[in-house]
Design goal:
3 helices; 3 strands; about 80 residues; 2 domains
């Protein structure tokens, strides 16, 4: 799947191409929910942590991994939310 900016596309379609403009205007759209996750320590022995969203495993020092605000693999927001 490829996400596009439908508004920008509409500006690039000439006015005389009303069928194309109607197709873009009536195309289905999706709502993107922001992915939220947390770093999960793999075990007490290793220094690995895993993303709770995609399962990507980081083999870094804990401070480096836990300090990353987003998963570099899937982009999930790893920042702590207030009240959690």
């Amino acid at each position: 799947m490829r996400l596009i900016d439908a508004d920008a596309l509409m500006q690039n379609i000439p006015n005389e191409e009303m069928i194309a403009k109607m197709a873009v205007a009536n195309a289905p759209s999706i709502e993107l929910e922001p992915k939220r996750g947390e770093w999960i320590k793999v075990d007490d022995v290793s220094i690995s942590c895993r993303c709770s969203v995609c399962g990507w495993e980081a083999h870094l020092y804990e401070d480096d991994v836990y300090g990353m605000p987003y998963c570099p693999n899937c982009g999930a927001d790893m920042r702590e939310r207030e009240g959690e």
